[in-house]
């Protein structure tokens, strides 16, 4: 089945934090994220959570967006466990077409 998704991210100047929300057609959830930049603004790390009705509690993810160069960025997502560790769920490489 085809999945459609929408993510909106922004920066709050007052709190000096990155925020985001995510929706997709795989479920009825809304995921929220909050985080910071490092490496001179080239790496944004956010922590996302959403309620998972299959387990009856929040699931947490760490997402890392890295600006590799002017035309390339990567998105890595890690499912976090209760001990602060995580396992990589996916990596996407985006390339700008000219």
Protein architecture, described:
The chain has a seven-stranded antiparallel beta sheet, with no helix packed on it. It has no helices and seven strands. It is globular. The mean pLDDT is 90. It is mostly beta strands and 98 residues long. Strand 1 and strand 2 form a beta hairpin. The termini are far apart. The protein has strands spanning 5-12, 17-24, 31-38, 43-52, 57-69, 72-80, 86-95.
Computed CA radius of gyration, to the nearest angstrom? 14 Å
Q: How far is it from the N-terminal to the C-terminal residue, by CA?
A: 30 Å
In the predicted model, the low-confidence regions spanning at least 5 consecutive residues are: none
Overall, the morphology is globular
Q: Count the strands?
A: 7
Give the biggest beta sheet: 7 strands, antiparallel
Count of separate DSSP helical elements: 0
Report strand %. over 45%
Instruction: Classify the secondary structure makeup into a structural class.
Output: mainly beta
Mean pLDDT metric: 90
Looking across the biggest beta sheet, what order are the strands in?
Answer: 1-2-3-4-5-6-7
What fraction, in percent, of the residue positions are helical? under 10%
Order of helices and strands: EEEEEEE
